[in-house]
Amino acid sequence: IAASHLPIPTHQTTSEHLLSQTREVYYLESLLPGGLKFDGIEDIGALLERAGRQGMLSGEDLLATATTLAGARQLRRTIDAQEDLPTLTALVEDLRTYPELEQEIYHCIDDRGKVSDRASPKLSEIREKMRGNRDRIYSTLQRLLQRNSHAIQEAVITQRDNRFVIPVKATHKDVISGIVHDVSMSGATLYVEPQSTVVLNNALRQLLRQEQTEEEVVLQRLTEQIALVQADLETLLAICTSLDLAAARARYSLWLGANPPQFIPWTEGDPQGAIVLRQLRHPLLVWQQQHEVGRSVVPTDLVIQPQIRVVAITGPNTGGKTVTLKTLGLAVLMAKVGLFVPAREPVELPWFEQVLADIGDEQSLQQSLSTFSGHIRRIGRILTALPEGQSSQTDRSHSLVLLDEVGAGTDPTEGSALATSLLRYLAHHNQLTIATTHFGELKALKYQDERFENASVEFDEVSLSPTYRLLWGIPGRSNALAIARRLGLSEIVIEQAQEYVGGSTAEVNQVIAGLEEQRRLQEQKNKEADRLIKQAEFFYEQVTTKANKLKERERELKQAQEETIQKLLLDAKSQIAQVIKELQRGTPTAQAAQVATDRLNKVAERHLPSRQPKQKPGFQPKVGDRVRIPRLGQTAEVLAVNDDEELTVRFGLMKMIVSIYEIESLQGEKVQRPEKRVEPRRETPPPPPSQIPVIRTDRNTFDLRGSRVADAEITIDRALSEVQGPIWIIHGHGTGKLRQGVHEYLKQHPRVLKFEPAEQRDGGTGVTIAYPTG
Hints:
Blueprint: H1 12-31, H2 45-52, H3 59-80, H4 86-92, H5 99-108, H6 121-147, E1 158-160, E2 163-169, E3 178-183, E4 189-194, H7 198-228, H8 230-256, E5 261-263, E6 275-280, H9 283-291, E7 300-304, E8 310-314, H10 321-336, E9 344-349, E10 354-358, H11 371-385, E11 397-403, H12 412-429, E12 430-436, E13 452-460, E14 465-472, H13 480-486, H14 491-501, H15 503-585, H16 590-607, E15 626-629, E16 634-641, E17 646-651, E18 654-659, E19 664-665, E20 701-703, H17 709-722, E21 727-730, H18 737-748, E22 752-757, E23 767-772
Parallel strand pairs: 5-9, 8-12, 8-13, 10-11, 11-12, 20-21
Antiparallel strand pairs: 1-2, 2-4, 3-4, 6-7, 6-9, 13-14, 15-16, 15-19, 16-17, 17-18, 21-23, 22-23
Helix pairs in contact: 1-8, 2-8, 3-5, 3-8, 5-7, 6-7, 15-16
């Protein structure tokens, strides 16, 4: 109902607000399962008005009010639960749903819309008495049926005029005395209220009237509560209606495959302000295609520059000129009322104050109107609707005028002159006019006034049928003679007609045909260029994606390598810390400290990252200086300068000798190496393999004592794959078979460079150290 009385907005801000609602509901429809739900919400406008006039609402009316309150509350919760919905959030911000009123209605009215027993104590008492009275009536009548079964037509208890009766055979009416309330159609059955139940039925009738009175008291009380909040409930209903309309617009736009329009300023000096409606489709044709299995809809491209004021569309009949007018008018109106437009993005158009159309001839026998008279009458109303007194661009009417077959229905010469004058007037007084015509004179206006533009509907001369494609910048040409020749009309008649037309017309048609052919070739080239561009963009995306993956893989590998090095250093440092603790607990010996220092040096030389901070040359350490040893991550004190190449340093309890080129100052300055004299190149043997660190930790030590040789081989193979650096294999002495088997396996293993017994302090011959290759 609201959609059928939908007003067309008169301000652009209103249209933009409606489009914002549609856009946000469109988002909710795609986000929520089942979309925005309006369960329980009903049109309660009439009953609210009745309540405001002190009328009494029925139980069904009250139940509809309660379900509407519940449905509106659920709508508000759904919207409040989402983010980035400013328009809908502002719409439901002042929504009041009165949960206490809803609970009161549900307390007094059951699901069938009847007043329940719990509505009032008095009503509950009355209904309890009614049930007791009804039970006594049933008992009495059941006994009568059993005692007088021969006189009963059927052993049932029924009602007539809200009084309980039994069916008695007419031939035995004297057997059961009472009041006859009804007679069957055949007259064979009398519906008798026995004398013994008359008093009980009278009492039941009195209770029924008391029940009705008490129900009305409850209904009136609830109605008065609704009347007190009538204004808020009417606001609630208006908000729900706005949401329902927005949902309908969003769902229709989704079904139509439409896109949101954008209103643009339309001024001659703005090159970005063109109307852009590409692949525009008529909504009714889309519906016809999907529901009636019609032919596919041929879309129309409308790109109109802001300096254009009049577009003249020419071409053959049934070519789609009128459909183009209607489609453009519908698109403008759809955007104004908040609907999406069935066109490809971007959808850009100005906000027109009015859409004024003259489509159809308005012939009328009653009003004595011819085709021409109908056109003139409607065009007169259009000119009257335009604001008067426009004399400049700023005063121009911001309306869209659509004229179908302008100037038709009268003498061609006078009709063409009238159409030319009318279009020039509209170019000066109106924002945009689209007109269809067959007059050749209107095609020339483009070359006389830059505010005019030509367009034509394409026609296939081979199939003698329109293609419904709109061609811009090219006027339509006459196809009457060509069609007549192909349809078999006498060649004599066609040649005579050609003479009447004249050679100039034929030359113009040839020029137009050449332009159309050039346009077709240009469109083919454009399509091929678009295809190549899309293909290039596809390949570029593939190459970019692969390059990004390679960079990410390289970064991951570097990160994994650094993490491995850090783990090894942490293991080594933990072992050094353990040695330091042992030194602190006992009597420190220089030999033990030197052994630990050598191990740490070997780990650092092999695993520290090659990238070092930029060296600052010129530093010369002296005794007492504090220096930094980067490869160890330690700060030490210089105890002695042994010679030009070595220093004795101390950090913690440990003393060690380091190269002077391995240290730096606390400011990052390095000792500059002296330049070496260039000597003739010599053949030098390949450098020996880098020294493998021999720091024993829990990670590289494997206890195989008590294992079989086969199980030991599996453990050794896994250790060589997972551990970087040498591994310590504890096999013990025992019978010697395990040690022999381990050594035999290490001899033939491809990843073992060498193996040797461990030092005496690490287990001696009971432990074997295996060094991996590479």
